[in-house]
# Entry
Amino acid sequence: MARPYMNKIARRQMLLDTASGIVDEYGWNTLSMISLAEHGGVSRQLVYQNFDSINTLTEQTASYMFEELYTEIQDVLRKHSDDIVVAITKAQHVLFSFPEGRVQALWALLADNTSHNTPFSAVSRRYRKLISDLYTPIISRTMNIDTQHAGQVAWLLMMSFWGGQQLIHDKTISKTKSLELIQWYIERLVAGCKASEA
# Structure
């Protein structure tokens, strides 16, 4: 049976959906031009027409996977910009709403610490900065610290988020307990900043 016609945009969307599914289920190391062609039921030639190299495929798949998480967290922080505890707790809910494979794949991307010369590590650094920059304004304002310091605190908080997710993955704690711990942690951090100002 012939495949239904897809325009260029729909075809690229289908390929990125497929690539994301491969990464979700098997991890980044399994994503290749060949695996994408096989899972997508298309020719390698078609894959190469859309992605000129594995580096391009990896970067665009990472962007595609990251965009939804980024947009949802951005919306949460905008809606709750007056209360850092609520904002960060709700942002953690966003993370929990994603399938576990996607969360693990995004964590692998953000936590990458391989050579600074690889395309994957360049993508990793870019997304770490984007995530930190999302949280920097509310942290700077709430904790009354400069932007640079707030950006560093933001990344430390993100590590706590992902650490909580890993504990859930390892079945050490529940999602509810992880959320309680994050909230407790943020409340103590904010209280400590206020106490040091007094």
